[in-house]
Amino acid sequence: MKLTAYSIVGFWICILFYACTGKTKTEVAESARGFMAAYKEQDIAQMRIYYPDIDNIDIFYASDTAFIEEVIPLSDSGDYQVDIVSVYMTEDNGPEMQHVTLFMTNTGQKQPAYRITDSYGIASCKSYPHYKFAVQTGCLVPDSDLTDQQAIYRLRVAKDLLFYFSKLMYQDLEQNIRVTHTRILEQGKLNAHGSALVENSSDYTLPDLKYIIVYYDDNDRKVGEQSGWVTQAPFESGKTVSFEFFTTFDEAAATADFRLDFDLDLIMQFVMEDDVYTGREYDEFVSKKLIDI
């Protein structure tokens, strides 16, 4: 077989191409290993060098050992996909395998030569406290092909949605659970006692309920405050309960203001555990079809 000048040039071009490709894959793998070493230690500052958007993720899977399976070029973009097997020990001291995928792009720098733009298998989405709420409201669909950054974005929307529904519930409680028929008996200028009724006209049953009484003098200056339980039993929708109070203060009081203390953490927990969601809430929220509050 006779070699021509063109075939010789082509041969050397192929050799150079594969040599460059091999060098590039080595650089990609080095950056991936650098990230996984920082990931093993949960060193956020070091992880951020390789993965600038890592701060979006709050809860990670653990990793005790990691092995690179494959470094795959992605079309002609110069980007790469790195497939990794990560192994960690569970609380029961059993090994658990996690498949991790890193999407990497060239930085134009020596260190690191490649950085991570997105990933699979880093974010422990099911460990987020509002994960179930995110699924119920359609923010997340189990087993969907969302990357870590896409899933974290959906979880952040779910958190906003959680605050939205919690605020709606808070407003409803404020409007429909009210103190009525207050009766104060003064026993002297520096103390007071009395009783009050609270009506629950909302659609909710509260596990407990607190009150706050603030006392003012003739100049509307606060001179005393008291808080306590309206009831520690479940306060059902449509019910009325009474409570008594006794307060002392340092200066003479002329008026008193009664306020119910709705626990925001309790409301958020109630909203997270409710079962009334249709799965369309995410779409309605992002398309602004829900009412303004």
SSE layout and pairing:
Layout: H1 5-41, H2 44-50, E1 65-74, E2 79-89, E3 95-106, E4 114-120, H3 131-136, H4 148-176, E5 177-188, E6 191-200, E7 209-216, E8 222-231, E9 240-248, E10 255-261, H5 264-273, H6 281-286
Antiparallel strand pairs: 1-2, 2-3, 3-4, 5-6, 6-9, 7-8, 7-10
Helix pairs in contact: 1-2, 4-5
- How many strands, which pairing sense, and closed or not: the largest β-sheet? 4 strands, antiparallel
Question: Terminal Cα separation, in Å?
Answer: 81 Å
Low-confidence stretches: 5-20
Query: What class do helices, strands and sheet pairing give?
Result: alpha+beta
Order of helices and strands: HHEEEEHHEEEEEEHH
Strand portion, in percent? 25-35%
What characteristic shape results from the CA principal axes?
Answer: elongated
Instruction: Give the strand order of the largest sheet, numbering strands 1, 2, ... along the chain.
Output: 1-2-3-4
Number of strands: 10
Number of helical segments with 4 or more residues: 6
Instruction: Indicate the percent of residues in helices.
Output: 25-40%
Q: Gyration radius, to the nearest Å? A: 31 Å
**Average pLDDT metric:** 88
